[in-house]
Amino acid sequence: MLDYQARMKTFQQNLAQQADLAFFPISADLAYLTGVPRDIPTFGWTIHPGHWLEGAWVTPNRAVLTLPRMSAEFGGLSDSADIELHVLGDHGNPADLVAKILKEMELPNPPTVAIGDRAHGETVVNLQALLPNVRFISGTDIVRKQRVIKTEEEIEVMRRAGAMTEAAFADVIPNLKHGMTELEVLTEVNYQLRKHGSLGESFPTAFYNSGVNHPLIFGKRLETMPRVLEPPVSILFDFGAILEDYCYDFGRTVFFGEPDANIQRVHGLVMASQAAGIAALKAGENTTAQADAAARKIIEDGGLGEAFRHRLGHGIGMDVHEPPFLTASDHTLLQEGMLFTIEPSITQFHDVSARVEDVVVARPGGGEPLTSGFQELIVIE
């Protein structure tokens, strides 16, 4: 059971040393502290009257949730957390409601306000008008110190999210056929995630497909989604489930056609690289940069270092990408309970590619993967 009251109490103690007030909009930070959930985002922003006050106002001894009526009622947020609630009616003045709450909080002049990194500029502008001498700092930086180390309860939620993701993938595989389009495969993945109980995709499901007759193209979805997948082609999956506000991130490689020595070698290098990265995730001993270097060396020694185009991985939890990062420029000492993706890849523009990705817990003796199925190259003949 996730203890939101204990999280809030710890945050308020940390806040007292740095700021007089914190504001968090609907976000992972707010969900972490209160349990107020997020919804699946849309391409266009759906704005409610008074949207800028949507979130929690926290002092070292009080926490207040303010919501527009639409969010409270139709969004189902009015009873989503054990926290003092104020609802703004459709015709209410948001500045008046916030001014009343701030007056009751008896802030010093000038106040220091810690703002969540996902807050909108409109919120900051309105707060500046209400508190002309305000000094802003990052509230996310304060709460991140709590979020970076996951409890065993959080790790168990992520383990279950991983099992959900793997189960969805297992049901995708029998439906893969030569001649499918990339869009058809993507649609099948997203359907299976929901069928297995996920709220949706923790991030937009992505593919990095390539072969001698199927060039790798990054970032042009409308161009790549209609493409037909005919052998020989490697299909690189990148997707994850959502469970109890936590995000999973998972990847495997599927090959359409008869696998030759080239794809077997590429896939073998990626899997060996991941194993080295997992082993290097030694809490209290290695840094994030050292873990990246251990995995990268395998692919570099195999002569394909330039095709490993990105960092080894990233922190993960209530957000898909969280600090710290497994990269050469990040020298954070690994601590037990940190969660990372370990996701080496070899991506080639006019040849076969491969990737693998699992969420891994940093432990004293090395990493503990939360998913470990489908280790061999998956072949659809």
Any chance you could write out the topology, listing elements then pairs?
Blueprint: H1 4-15, E1 21-25, H2 28-34, E2 55-59, E3 62-68, H3 69-73, E4 84-88, H4 94-105, E5 112-115, H5 121-130, E6 135-138, H6 139-147, H7 152-172, H8 182-195, E7 206-207, H9 221-224, E8 233-238, E9 242-243, E10 246-247, E11 253-256, H10 261-279, H11 288-301, E12 313-315, E13 322-326, E14 339-342, E15 345-346, E16 354-355, E17 358-361, E18 368-369, E19 378-380
Parallel strand pairs: 1-5, 3-4, 5-6, 11-19
Antiparallel strand pairs: 1-2, 2-3, 7-8, 8-11, 9-10, 12-13, 14-17, 15-16, 17-18
Overview of this protein structure:
There is one protein chain. With 381 residues, this protein is of the alpha+beta class. It has 2 domains: 4-147, Creatinase/prolidase N-terminal domain (Creatine Amidinohydrolase, Chain A, domain 1, 3-Layer(aba) Sandwich); 152-380, Creatinase/methionine aminopeptidase superfamily (Creatine Amidinohydrolase), CATH 3.90.230. Helix content is 33%, strand content 19%. The chain has 11 helices and 19 strands. Strands 4-3-2-1-5-6 form a 6-stranded mixed β-sheet. It has a 4-stranded mixed β-sheet with strand order 7-8-11-19, with no helix packed on it. It starts with a helix and ends with a strand.
